[in-house]
Amino acid sequence: MRTRLRVAAYAICVRDGRLLLARGWAPDGTPEWTLPGGGMEHGEDPHDTVVREVEEETGYRIEVTGLLGVDSIRRRFRRGFGRTVDHHGVRLVYEGRVVGGDLRNEIGGSTDLAAWQDTAAVPGLRRVGLVDTGLALWRERPAAGRIVPAGPPEG
Q: Domains along the chain?
């Protein structure tokens, strides 16, 4: 079985009761909302990753105002030729404040739409679990920097 580690950085940007989200695609081609952010380049600092990714996906420049926490997820996927990949994602979640730029959609990237969504409406959106984890980190600000899952581990 092939193993894969991916380290990524994401931002929670809340303004006037609205959360900045980007829309990406589930493996089945269905659109899903996610936090703006993405994978680190080799040698890149996670702080720089989140600033770069937010600008790429939303058009906004952000100031990182804090590290909210770290989320770890492990899943197994079937890939081409029947191979299984054991994927481990380590996701750093930062709080950010928009300091410039204009809202726009990403072109030629992993997302196609950026929008502010009312935080009260987020539970009704088709979204990845990272959105809920990020909001929980933002609301609870746990001293250990992690949210302990209520149910069985994802995998």
A: 2-140 (3.90.79.10)
